Amino acid sequence: MNEIMNGLAAWAAPLWERLLDKMPEILAATWETVDMVLLSTLFSMILGFLLAILMIVTNPIGLRPCRSVYQVVDFVVNLLRSFPFIILLIAIIPFTRMLVGTTIGSAAAIVPLTVAAAPFVARLIETCFLEVDRGVIEAARSFGASDMQIIFRVLIPEALPSIVLNVAVVAITLLGYSAMAGTVGGGGLGDLAVKYGYNRFQPDIMVYSVIILCGLVLVIQGICNFLYKMLR
């Protein structure tokens, strides 16, 4: 028994020492990932919300139907959603460099993350708006509510619980994208996992990165579930 324990201790000692040695880099990479996900989620929600408002207003069954405008916006949203993220990441490098002055690091990764998520967010929020009971909208209109009042006092409050749940979907998707961005110098846990876990044959560092990513997913989903219950 003692030999087994000694063997386990001898096996675990280098891993523990490496964990302690890499802890500053692991914490820094975790913060970079959290920073990327929070900011890209915020920016994509803002852009996606504006696109969703435009689509719900110009939709053939919307507040101010305009088929031509809706078809153009719908086409752009579908087109951007069809791009695989890794290709989009490379394709908009000139745009990223123009905005932030670099194509390496977490700040640069926020740009493609936002561009990739914004049309996805727009479609999710549009779906939430379409699920609002048309009778409530017609009742507000019959009382003389303007389009802006219907949007901000009827559509958004009614759709808010569903939107909050979709925030979790977006944030978790961006968490996966941020790890992918790390493979091409985007920073964060993905970069750490590739740098040490793959290139330097230290699979334990990759395992730590995966564990932290899984923990972040649980935290994001837990927070959004809590907010959903409060709003309901």
Notes on the structure:
The chain is 85% helix and 0% strand. It is an all-alpha fold and 232 residues long. The chain has a single domain (23-231), classed as MetI-like fold (Orthogonal Bundle), CATH 1.10.3720.10. Helix 1 runs antiparallel to helix 2 and helix 6 (134-142) packs antiparallel against helix 7. The longest helix is centred in the N-terminal third of the chain and has 57 residues, at 2-58. Mean pLDDT is 84; it is low at 1-12.
Low-confidence residue ranges: 1-12
Q: Strand fraction band?
A: under 5%
How is the quaternary structure best described?
Answer: single chain
Number of strands: 0
Listing every helix as H and every strand as E from the N terminus to the C terminus, the arrangement reads: HHHHHHHHH
- Give me the number of helical elements: 9
Distance between the termini: 56 Å
- Domain module tally: 1
Name the shape in a single word: elongated
Mean pLDDT: 84
The main β sheet shows up as: none
Question: What is the helix fraction of residues, given as a range?
Answer: over 70%
Under the CATH scheme, which class? Mainly Alpha
**Superfamily (CATH H level) name:** MetI-like
Rg computed from alpha carbons, rounded to a whole number of angstroms = 22 Å
CATH topology: MetI-like fold
CATH architecture: Orthogonal Bundle
Helix-strand makeup class: mainly alpha
